[in-house]
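User: Before I run my own analysis I want an independent prediction to cross-check against. Here's the chain; please return only the structure tokens and, at the end, one sentence I can use as a sanity check.
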Amino acid sequence: MSKGGSMAAVVSGVVVLAGGVAAGLVSARARRENPCAAGSYAPRDDSARDPLTRRLRQGYASVEIAVWLDDTDRLLVGGSRDYTDPGAELERLILRPLADRIEAFVGRVYADSAAPFRLVIAIDEPDPERLDRAYERLEAHLADHPDAFTRLVDGVVRPGPVTVLLTGRHMPRLALTGAAQRRTFADGTFADLGPWGAPPTVAPLLSEPWSQHFDWDGRREMPADERNALHRLVAAAHAEGRQVHFAGLPERGWRVREAFWCELAAAGVDLITTTRPRALANFLRGYGKPAPALATVAHPRPVRRTVAVPVQASVHRSPRRGAGRPATVPAQAGTSARHRVSRSSGAARVGTP
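Assistant: Structure tokens:
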């Protein structure tokens, strides 16, 4: 081969290599995960073939899945008994990838957040004997990753990067209560509050459907008695060292969705179920952690709903025909006014200008 031909081949090879590297970078960028959205809760999706990877890319801090026991005592992920792909085993699909991430990120599930990750598991086994066997298999799988999961040792909780919570109608609460050492905890209810309920070492999270306690649907101002009841429930749970999550929140319509976010954030609700984790993360950054003291917005004329907002945020209402000048709540001295809340007559929007 002539010198010119050799040089052309080298140049061609460099071009191809550069193209491959660029394609790899683009592909890696496309697969890049969103930052962790602290406080976000991914609802259960039985149709997802890989319910963990997609949720991690979206930045969820809590993920709910379902598992069931097949005839060979394998724990499979998903709600369908017809889907028996060996790749759907809990260990292979969920637990091992979490353990690998924790090792890669030096004790974290997300590189950008040290907040504990919650894996919420519903064991779909109504038969008590199969339920107990599934629970034993789950504990055995978790024990294979001793540094990954929060555990109870002789009555003392030793936090880990991932906390596993059992939820749903079929839960081995007696086994949880009687175990001196375990790596699973219960997703309890508000009936666990007080000395007669399960202690926080058994039920560190309390979850119930929103409609079981409240009638407010987010379309008008939240009634004062319901708002007070919400704050009392959350305060009682926090006083016992527990966290709070409400299921069944409406997701349709950004006005309704963000009206709920306003009230839940103001009350200090710890986990919020959402299909929009990035929007929720941006919203919660406007409130801060913990939520600051609140101020009530004074409007130039009555509107359908008034939402409490943080005092360090400036609040602006878009003027409507015939309305007065926008009302503004100035930031307190020494606080940042980076976050602005734009309100229409039906909702609040929090973001960074």
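Sanity check: The CA atoms of residues 153 and 181 lie 5 Å apart.
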